[in-house]
Amino acid sequence: MNFQQLPIPGLIEITPRRHGDERGYFAEIFRLDLFCQEAGEATFVQENESLSSRVGTIRGLHFQTEPFAQGKLVRCTAGAVFDVAVDLRAGSATFGRWAAVELTPEKGNQLWIPAGFAHGFCTLKPDTVINYKVTAYYSAQHDKGLAWNDPAIAIAWPALADAETLSAKDRVQPLLADLPAHFRMESQPCA
């Protein structure tokens, strides 16, 4: 596996090595020992799947607060997705900055997003499916969000991003300037 640190500390693109022949390929898509060496300790407790039928579907930006803050390991198993993480860790040199990776089944890459980040994506192909493992169970009480189009963050969404696809919840998420400091850089574990 190749672990590539993104410009924001903590975010890692993980690309498995594929061993192929005329039948197809084999790849290890997760190994706890290698993951812990590169990203730190994490215990995944839930796995989620999302299907978005329309191109340009925007989901997010979402996060959960303590004690249910989630680290996420995201991969795309059908279609393609522009996957985004925004640093929400107060005290971080990259607070309010974003990074994105295009995830595809052809590449087989994944994005590790530790707790302390908001996560969202835009589908690039129809019938896009993402799977993601999380380090804390879903908690409606701790489920929070951030405006996908906050001008202070200025995410360079793909031109096909369609605001009409936003859920009712995502249409009313607050701006970064209006969020309380849910996370602090010095107190954030890896997962």
From TrEMBL:
Alphabetically ordered keywords of this record: Isomerase
Coiled coil: none
Pathway entry: Carbohydrate biosynthesis; dTDP-L-rhamnose biosynthesis
Name the UniProt record assigns to this protein: dTDP-4-dehydrorhamnose 3,5-epimerase
Membership in a protein family: Belongs to the dTDP-4-dehydrorhamnose 3,5-epimerase family.
InterPro entries cross-referenced by the UniProt entry: RmlC-like (IPR000888), RmlC-like_jellyroll (IPR014710), RmlC_Cupin_sf (IPR011051)
Subunit structure: Homodimer.
A Pfam family of this chain: dTDP_sugar_isom
SUPFAM superfamilies: RmlC-like cupins
